[in-house]
Every structure is written in structure tokens, then in C-alpha cells.
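Researcher: I'm preparing a figure for a lab meeting and need a structural model of a single chain. I don't have an experimental structure, so a prediction will have to do for now. The sequence is pasted below. Please return the structure as C-alpha cells so I can convert it later.
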Amino acid sequence: MTKRARTILFLSFVLLFLISVPPVIFYADGYRIDFAHFRIVKVGALRINARPFPANMYVDEKFIESTSFLFRTTFITDLLPQNYLVQVKKDGYQTWQKQLAVYEGSITSATAITLFPIFPLQTIIQSDAVSSGFFPEPKGRAALIAYNAQDRSYNIGAYNSQTHQLLNLDIPNSVGVLTDVVWSNDAKKALLIFTKSNGAFSYIIADNLGETPTITFASSLSTLLPSKGMFSRTQWSNDNSHLLTIVSYTATTKKTQQDLYYIDLDTNTSTKPVRARLENYVLDVKDFLVLQDGIYTIEGAINTMNHYSATLSNRTQISSTPYPVTFNTPSAAFRLIGDSSMIFALHSDGQLLRFNQAKQTFDKIADGVRNIIPAPDGLKVALQKDNEVYLYWVKDINDIPNHKKDDVELIWRLSEPIKWITWLSAPYQYLAIGTTTSLRISELDTRDGRNIVSYKQIAPNSGMVWNDQNQELLLVNKNDFVGVSLDKTTQ
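Model: Understood. Here is the structure written out cell by cell.
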């Protein structure tokens, strides 16, 4: 080969290198030609995670892959920035689908997808039980149900989440009808409050719930009350050994008063907090909240927020302004709800306020609220109105979709009254909404609308609660006390 030929060959390779390398680098950096729009763009990706597995992933109705125990997340790369129809399918389950936007150089995630069965498995815990009271522990770890059996006998059953059975408590009918249950923090103990036909109250303490329950007749609790007094709001102490209760009674002025008592169950004595240097003062408590760092109260003539130690000593006023709602009656129609990071005040007229600990003030959130259910992750709170469910965001959420602190957004609006709502399992991206005619489950992700599942064959007529251990909803469906498994299907 001549020198000239070698030179031409060398220059040809150099030219080929200069021409080919930039496109390779261009491609490696994620750039592509969008022929539909005649432009150069940087690709994005989709990250999808769904349960239960295995589940089939589709993008624009094209099968991508099936998830498994080891590979639960599907990662789809080299996607041009545009909208894609993402579907997750599984036999016997409702299909999840959503139009998701992929952006240049970024990853769009949907990692909290849950598929719900078309026909969920219902395990009957107690059949043919005409419920006269369903009293679940707030976290679903235990439950008590009052029911009339087929022989018309009145029974109190304790639900054991491990054995999936209802254990009958040996309680005589003479104590009255079960009207309220106060659960301890560990769900192993409860104060049962009964009402007799003459209006009198009786009290029983059930212990070792969830295993082999024992009961103790706490008749001495009545002797601690003032004349014609009654427990209007009760909570257990943090160590589950004492009771704190608001006692409502008629004072010598013939005005209804409410005092907060600390009751030692072992010695049957009570302690009422008394302010130093104030004589003939009756503590007027609207409500209280037992938290890990002590006890919070709304009290006094101007309704200030106060903090006490666990035994109702060392009082400190922590609000600089009074609670801005007028109390027409000192009844338990006012509630404090929350934890040490967020304390809410819900008034009977539907006004919901949050206590701003930094400013020591009460900030109004919404009107018309009937109940609130904080999510266990501390990021959001479900607000239950007559026919609507809203979300209040406690903190900024930088994930997609973004949410700002103090945002309030509508989740669901129904034509019938909403009776009960409860959070499903972590990461708490689904709400179960119950009416007297159906059960609905709604996701929180607002992108391209929410996926909503409706079960008209399930009508929780006396309450419901999520049991995380068994991944089921506990409720009374018609005349059966059942556990509804939302990860199992009858098909």
C-alpha cells in the first residue's frame, strides 16, 4: 500500500471516529430524536411497584414484565418525554391504571400501588350476630363486640387477632348494656362502661385481651365520683396502670362542672389537680389528651391549652391565646386528637383547629368536620364530613405528586352520608370509606384521577377498623362479624 493510500485510510478512520463518537456520547447521555415532534430530547424513565405479587406491568397496553418476590419493582428506561398509559393487572383483582407523564432526564414513580380483589375473601368470625355495639381498638389490634346470639342472649366477645376467633367474656346481663370501651395503649386492657335500665353505670376492667381475657368488676370506681357524677371522657395513662377521666357533675351552683381526675386502680384513690392559692376553684376541663410527654388539656374560663406531667402535677400554660370557639355547654362534644407533633381541637359545631406549638395559638383548618383520623406516618390527616372526605397535609411532601403543608384537598364526595373511614397499611396511600350500603377504597394519588374500588356486597353497619397484623378490615357486615382480606380473593 502506498503512502498516499495509507494516509487516506488513516484520515478516513479519523473522520469516521469524529462522526460516530458524538452520537455514541449523545446516546449514552440519554438523548434521543423525537421523530414525532422533530426534536432532540433527553429520555426519562418509569419506576413501578405494586402489591400483591406477581403482577403484570403494561405500558401503552404493551406487556413489559411480571413482578416476583425478588423483583417487585419494574424499571422502564429510554422513554421519550410524554404521557404513558400504565396498567397493573392480576387475575381476580381490579386493574390499576393511570396516565403518567414522563419528563426529560427524570424518573416518574408510582411505588405505592395496591391491587384489590374483585371479590375479597371474607372470614366470618361470628355469624348471625345482631350487633348492638362494635368497639374496635383504634389501631385494629383488638376489638370487643356486643351482640345478641340466636338464643337472644346478650354477649360480649373479645376478638383474638392471632387465632381469628371471638372469645366470649363471662359477664352477667345484670351489669347493663355495653355503651363505651376505653382501650389501653398496648391494646391488652380495656375499661368497659355499661349502662343499666335505670340510667346507672357499672364498670368492668378486661385484661389480657388478645390472649385469654380476664375481667375485674370495678364497682369501686363509682364511689370515687361526686354525687350523680359520671365519666364523660376517659383515657389510660401511658403505662396502662392508671385512668385519667373527666368527671361531669352538678356543682352546688347547679351548674354542670367537669373536673379531671387521675385514678389509681390499685388503691382506688383519685387525685384532682388543684391550683395553688386559688380557693373554691372547680377545674373546668373541656377535654384532655394523654401523650408520651404528658397530659394536654383545654381548661378554665378562657379555655387555655395546658400541659401537665403524667400524674397531673407541674401545670404549664402553653397557649398564649384562648381557644377561639365559644362553649355553649361544658360537654364532651369537644375533643383533642393527635400526638406530640400535632394536636387538633375538634368542636361539636364542626370547627377544626390545629394547635400551633411554635406560635402558641390555634389555627383554623376547616368547618363542617365530624371526625378526623391522623395517618400513622404523621404526614396527613383524613377529615370526615357528612358526605365528603378531605385530606389535610401536616408537612411538605416533595415526592410526586407534591403537597404543601396545610393544604386541604377533597378525596371523595358521596350522595349518602359517610359513616366510617380508616387508613389501610403502610405507606398509608389508601383510605377505606364506609357507608351503610357499601365499602369504597380510594387511593390518594391525584394524577389522572384516583383509582377507586367499590364493594356493594359489603356494608359496614356499625363501624370498621384496619387490622395490620392480618391485613384485613374488621367490621360487621349485615349480621356477621367478619374480617375482610384485601389481599386475598375468593376467585
